[in-house]
Design goal:
The chain is about 70% helix and about 0% strand. With about 110 residues, the chain is mainly alpha-helical.
Amino acid sequence: DGSAAAPIAQVAADGAPGGALNLSDADQKRLQDAIDHHLRTDGGLPPGEESTREMLSEFAVCMIVAKKGMKEIEEELAPFLGEHAGAFADWFELHLQDHFPDLMGQLRRFWSG
């Protein structure tokens, strides 16, 4: 019918308390690509885990759009990243601060209640 499916992060945002974060489709893609690169190079996934990296990249973006805290993101990713989940959450928070400061501001306001 020519209609496109909603971006996965938008689906997550629909259930987020207080509404969706301001993150464009292009920024979602940019963030997913950065996560994928990090997981490929430093993230604790063995080489050849492309489908897992893609899924985790989408999952991490969905959790941010749904306003999950870093501790919750770490806990959700621990089954996949094991001992690397904490380091990933630390990197993710710094990456958001450096590359998505407006988004990080929205998240901090939400997290502080």
